[in-house]
């Protein structure tokens, strides 16, 4: 039986058929978390994602996720994630976007990268809060400023997420819109090509 298995493996190798499809290995120059090119869930790691609201029963605030045919890299068949937010409420307001990282070992990387732009027609905040959460779901925040209505690549050193000291099993990536940082308090941003990289 062992000889047959070896023979099959050799035959498959010569025919160009891979014996098994390997997942992206941690330690490469970059690992794509989400390119949104299917226009659907899950992300490239198999993780779920969606929008969240501080109080789903408060209809004066919220965040809605959709997919749009506006790929950051110009792929005509690709999509980006659009987040329409509203934190214009008399109540304390915050909401946003969450994405599971499925225990990704990010210890070989030093940078969080993604593309972002504001929706010029809807209006958009120039400033958002980002969070990364470790395996214990402990959040570490970073404030991103300088969003424009043109696609731009953002590269944030992981050292900026100071509360995380173990990168071997990451749990979640989060975008937060809140009534402190978001100006205007209603609008939309687009996000694409979320990745961890070694730069």
Could you name the key traits of this structure?
mainly beta; Jelly Rolls; 1 helix; 199 residues; single chain
CATH homologous superfamily annotation: Galactose-binding lectin
Oligomer: single chain
Could you please say which CATH topology applies here? Answer: Jelly Rolls
Number of helical segments with 4 or more residues: 1
Structural class computed from helices and strand pairing: mainly beta
* Binned strand content: 35-45%
Total count of domains: 1
- Architecture per CATH nomenclature, i.e. the level-2 architecture: Sandwich
Shape: globular
What is the end-to-end distance? 47 Å
Average pLDDT number: 89
In N-to-C order, the SSE pattern is HEEEEEEEEEEE
Rg calculated over all Cα atoms: 20 Å
- Low-confidence segments, ≥5 residues, pLDDT <50? 1-25
What percentage of residues falls in helices of 4 or more residues?
under 10%
Main sheet attributes: strand count, strand direction, barrel closure: 6 strands, antiparallel
CATH class: Mainly Beta
Could you give the count of β-strands? 11
Explain this structure:
This protein is mainly β and 199 residues long. The protein has one domain: Jelly Rolls (Sandwich). The protein has 1 helix and 11 strands, in the order αβββββββββββ. The strands form 2 sheets. Strands 1, 3, 4, 6, 9 and 11 form a 6-stranded antiparallel beta sheet that branches. The N and C termini lie far apart (47 Å). The relative contact order is 0.23.
